[in-house]
Amino acid sequence: MEHPEFDLGESRWYLNRELTWLEFNRRVLHEATDERTPLLERLKFIAIVSSNLDEFAMKRIGGLKQQIGAGLHELTPDGRTPRQQVIECNASVREIEAAKREAFREVRELLEGKGIVIESYDTLSPKEKKLLREYYYSNIYPLLTPQSIDPAHPFPFISNLSLNLLVTLRYPKSREHTLARVKVPIGLGTSRFIRVGKGDHFIPIEQVMMNNLDMLFPGMLIVSCEIFRVTRNANTEKDEEEADDLMSMIESELKERKFAPIVRLEVGEGMEPLHRGRLAAELELDEENDVLEVSGMLALRDLFEISKLDYPRLHDPPHHPIDHPQLIAERNIFHTIRDLDSVLLQHPYVSFSTSVERFLREAANDPKVRAIKMTLYRTSIQGRIIDALVQAAQNGKQVAVVVELKARFDEATNIHLAEVMEEAGIHVTYGVVGLKTHCKVILVVRQDFQGLRRYVHIGTGNYHTDTARMYSDVGLITCDDAIAQDVTELFNYLTTGFTAKRNYRAVMPAPKLLKKALLTRIEREVEMHRQNGGGLIRFKMNALEDGDIVRALYRASMAGVKIDLYVRDTCRLRPGIPGLSDNIRVASIVGRFLEHARIYYFRNDGAEEYFISSADAMKRNLEARVEVLCPVAAPELTAELRAVLDCHDADRRSAWDMQADGSYLQRQPVEGESGEGTQQMLIAQAQQRLKEALKQKKKPMQK
């Protein structure tokens, strides 16, 4: 029974999706101020937060502004209108930006002590300025296109996230000022930072341009030069992705009207108020709310360039993923899987290359393999995954790939990959109309000695070589009959879209079964707890946003079930409210790898159930995507998943505990406790497993 004092329909029990995501970025930014983080890694975290905030403006603020433009006033579960959310988000972003500037100032000073200097133009020697002018003339000047802004010239198109100079000029004998815009040509081989001299001293490209404008405007007097940057709404196309939940309420004809194509204008500190007002007016922005004055450098996401400098002591210790101890390199991988039945993979602790990529590579070249089917959401354009699929097709195998064309910011890559694969004779389909294909699944059909046998990989992360080294994910390689049969059904659904009744025995796909599976198991945990006590739920995910799941967890907590949630970023649920959620703990892990795995655990009165999934507990994942929830049953594999969750509990370095108001406190080691973070513990565990496997190998055979 629900406690009468808690009406779960009330908005006060829910936190805002956007504001809790911004709170996550405060935790990421903390890594840039934490003295335990190596210096160049601190710089990297500043770049990550900058990039995240750019994307937030493009997608989330963009989507909210379209709702405002369409006249929508629907309230979120936490009781906010689109306009309220924009105002509160902007205030939070300003606070994070100010903290980020301070972090950058501090890190910049510390880097100078190590010989890594981001110079200002006025501190350069005459000789350095001369050399830079020559460099500018040869390498930058030919790329520039100055554009006049006056009644005879329409206001120029300003591209998304570009840096721009606003130059005020006049003829020597005239009092009249004229304006020109010059785009800073970063990208396609042009770096943001130019090396000064032979050491690691750098100057931002815009400072070199600003101090050599006489070449662009010969014979003119440069009155002033100011800098600005524009962020465009990434949801102005009809195939928006990340903010599709924001767009779902807007009728299709409204989607096509480009509301709020520009969402933010950043200007350098001290810009002439007249110029600032003019830019805001030309870009159709509200000067008070949509214009952000920035002190110091704009576009700090470009600091990634400097964070990659080769100073081993200023980086995290190198991490080398191990080969999975059970996937013996000298033996056919399918024979190994057949003997083991299932293998759990933990990336990046276990090598993606010698597990998942090897699985595909061997499938492509094994003469007994008949068919390969696979979903692709994101992958590297020059990756070994595509090479293996093409090789398989060339070897005469039947290869079918379901490509998600609307994977955010990877649309162009995926279209190109689809064309490459089709040319190689691969059957390419694009999933089910109206649903995004987000599950990560490979099916290999092989002729074994007893007939056809199916081998499956199901993962929580993308089939992407680069991110597999930076994201923390789990995967399962198995030849379990029930899972293999379900995955066959899943591919038949993905390639036809037919929703005829499909009998899934083990794997539970979204949108049909996954959400129902989670809700019924939460309810079952409540019933079991009422009968026998000991109810326990542990979820690890990137985000908890779905209102139905939050309400179910509240009800379970009120019934006395203990609930541990490890949620990386967005979390609508408020833990620790007496009577409502005092049995719920929420923790967030922020470390060198991006936490990306989804694990769902139910104690089930001792008959424990573990699942891995491609889906977070978000409405769009559960209701508008094809996702999978896959059981992991073997005791040695569930022990590994339990160890992952236990590391989260034991973490006293990178874990943050959520408070009832949505703020977070970082855990601190007390005397005698290890100050290790989850990821360090998992690296150590993977190495220990390898060591034990090698020891077993060396043991003499028993006679």
TrEMBL record:
Cofactor list: Mg(2+)
Domain Polyphosphate kinase C-terminal: 332-496, 510-669
Amino-acid positions noted as binding Mg(2+) in the UniProt annotation, renumbered to this chain: 378, 408
Keyword Flavoprotein carried by entry: no
EC number, as in UniProt: 2.7.4.1
Residues noted as binding ATP in the record, renumbered to the chain: 52, 471, 568, 596
MF term (GO), any: polyphosphate kinase activity
Membership in a protein family: Belongs to the polyphosphate kinase 1 (PPK1) family.
The protein, known as: Polyphosphate kinase
Gene: ppk1
